[in-house]
Design brief:
Helix content is 48%, strand content 10%. By secondary structure, it is α/β, with parallel strands linked by helices. The chain folds into two domains: 126 residues, Response regulator (Rossmann fold), CATH 3.40.50.2300; 84 residues, Orthogonal Bundle (Arc Repressor Mutant, subunit A). A six-stranded parallel sheet has the order 2-1-3-4-5-6, with helices on both faces. About 3% of the residues have low confidence.
Amino acid sequence: MFVVAASDVVRAGLVSLLEADARFWVAGSAEDLSPLAAPEAEGPPPDVVVFDAERPLTQAPSALRAFVEGARDGERVPAFVVIGDEESAWAREALREGVVRALLPPSASAGEIIAAVEAVSAGLAALAPETLAALLSPPAPNVEELLATPSSPPPAEPERDALTPREREVLEMLAEGLSNKEIAWRMNISEHTVKFHLASVFAKLDVSTRTEAVMQGLRRGLLMM
């Protein structure tokens, strides 16, 4: 197992967390994937790489893609547990291709990280409920396509009732830019319940990201500017 995180504090924390579990052996850690991709790297690649994609987030897609494409012929590519970027298109695409086997939010607890690593080590996948719902939803147009599409007539009232009052409330807070934790605090519910509502909203609106949910909510008259 190998740990990759740009932050020294995050990297040390992940290594300490994994080494505390007797089932896991951490072969090393680094701030990026270069030690694993180096031609002079000794020994076989690790089975699992725990990859903190939150910082710097913009480098995560290119770094992971370059590592996979640069693997030597016949070399096994490790399974990745990605933390901090569960909503992005590149991470979900990597999941479909079998490179990423677990997507966790930045707020993932120690227990959730251990459970994800355990699942991936056993050849399984680990996903948050809303991520699974997004993967199962039909592809949604991007924001540019939505803005370029001529406005449609106001939706009929039955469509406004497609979301429950609580789901409408969550959608309105998404439009305000609130995080799951902030929504949970404002609604006085758990983050798990917020994730459940988000998964339902995504499925009903046929979207896969928070931005697309807000855009669809505006187009369908579920949100007011």
